[in-house]
Structures are given as structure tokens and as C-alpha cells.
Amino acid sequence: MSMMSAVSDMEAGLDTLRHWFSNKLDRVVEYAQFLYVQRWTGFTVSGAPEFEAQAVPFFLDLLTTAGAYLEFGMGGSTVLAAMNGVCFVSVDSDRHFMRAVKDKIKQIGRLDPERQTFIHGDIGPTAAWGIPVLQRATPSRVERWRRYLQAPWAAMMDKPGPYLVLVDGRFRVACALSAAKNLDASQTQILIDDYEGRDHYRVVERHLELRQRCGRMALFTPRADIDAKSLDADIEKYSADWR
Fold first, then answer.
1. Quick check: is 75 in a domain?
2. pLDDT digits over 98-127, tens only?
3. Which residue from 25, 105, 139, 150 puts its CA 20 to 30 A from 84's CA?
4. Which pTM value belongs to this model?
5. Is the pLDDT of residue 7 over 50?
């Protein structure tokens, strides 16, 4: 190897190292900024869901005809449910954001402990949008992540149908399939936000029938011929996928 070639390789290696450190530093700064909001200044919660414009009335029509509403991922959708007097169970992976949503509903005079259940699905430390900070799927982490999927079912046991489930948080595939497993299929509709363009969500169509699309949102019902063994296997598999 010539001296010039060796120097060129060294410079390329240093460029790669600088790029790696720069990316790491950017991520650390971004997380520090998030922690400042999460732990100090507090979250701002919208009074309406952060859906595409056409999806809001679509969601509202489904919401107001449901006997009970379950959501994975809190926010403006939770506030909208409270404003419309809908009985709901809501799960979020960020306890600080959960508190902010509950405070928002209290501020507008719509907090109703008899008809509203807020649950922290504890998956460990979270970053923006409730994403786990530690993302490698080790056995102990996956065991903890399952709490998020399992969180609402005791609270949903005494709720009357028909059911609307919004999947707009973490572990979207596993959450949608868990709803198909735990709720009466004949009375259940499942909405997955941001479905369009995310091919890794399409596995749900093994077990759910796609009924309608509205922008990036998709509406499903559980398949009549759903195979319980296959469903359980996919829930287990996708419990390790936080997306």
C-alpha cells in the first residue's frame, strides 16, 4: 500500500468517526431538550387529534357511536373523547405526558373518573412520542414492554360495546392484534393511524380485515376466520417491535 493510499484511508476513517460522533452528539442534545420539556416545562396538549384534516371528522363519527373507546397513545384524541362524553380507557408509555393530558381535560371541566381511565403502560425511560430510550429487544426489556399491551384489558372487561380502538402509540402491530384477541370481534373496530406508507404494519392484515382508508389512517375489523394460535404467535413476535 502506498503512503498516499494509507493517508487517504486514514482520512476516510477519521471522517467516518467524526460523522459518528456528530450524530451521537445531536441525539444527546435532542434528548436533553426533550427531558427539559418532559421534566421541567411540561407538555402542551392540543384540544384536537394531530391527524390529517380529513381524518378528524372520520374519527369523530366512529368515536361518538362507540359504547367504549380504547386508545394506545394519548393526546388530542383523548381530549376530544372527554369533550364528547365518551367512556374511555387510554394508555400511554410516558407518565409525564399522561399527567399533562389529564390536566388538560381537568382544565376544560371534562374530567370524569367514573368514565375515564388513564393508564401508564410502563416500558421504561421514554423519549419523544413515547419511544423507548433503550430499544434493543433484550428478554428483560420485552417482558417489560408487554405491560403496555396488557395494560388496558382489566379496565375494559366491564365496558359495553361496540368498541372503537385507536392504535396511535407504540408497538402498533402488537396493540392492534391484542385488541383483536381481547375484545368481541363482532363489536370491534380498530383504527391504526399512519398506516399508509408503513409497510411493516401490514402484517396485521393476516388477522384484520381492512375496511376503509382515510388519508394515512386505516380502519379494520377482526377477521371472522382468525386463527388463535397464529394470532398469539404474532403478538409475541411484535411485542419486541416498538414502532
1. yes
2. 999 999 999 999 999 999 999 999 999 999
3. 150
4. 0.86
5. no
Strand (E) or helix (H) holding 117: strand 116-120
The residue type of 40 is W
What is each CA distance from 78 to 48, 117, 129, in whole angstroms?
Answer: 8, 11, 15
Q: Where does 188-231 show beta strands of DSSP type E?
A: 188-192, 208-214, 217-222
Residue 47 lies in a domain: no
Q: Do 188 and 163 contact (CB within 8 A), yes or no?
A: yes
Does residue 243 fall inside a structural domain?
no
| Cα distance between residue 89 and residue 235, in whole Å | 21
Does residue 60 sit in the same domain as residue 11?
no
Can you tell me which residue has the cell 392484515? 205
Query: CA-to-CA distance for 74 and 94, rounded, in angstroms?
Result: 9
CA pair distance 80, 17, nearest whole angstrom: 48
Mean local confidence (pLDDT), 19-40 = 71
Cell output for 173: 402491530
Cβ contacts of residue 24 below 8 Å, gap of 6+?
Answer: none
Q: Kindly state the helix (H) or strand (E) to which residue 71 belongs, with its residue range.
A: strand 68-72
3-state SS, residue 191 = strand
Cβ pair 92, 130 in contact under 8 A: yes
CA angle centred on 43, ends 38 and 49, rounded to 5°: 130
**Ramachandran angles phi, psi of 165, nearest 5°:** -120, 125
Q: What is the span of the domain harbouring residue 92?
A: 55-238
Q: Please, are residues 51 and 144 in contact by the beta-carbon 8 Å criterion?
A: no
Same domain, 19 and 100: no
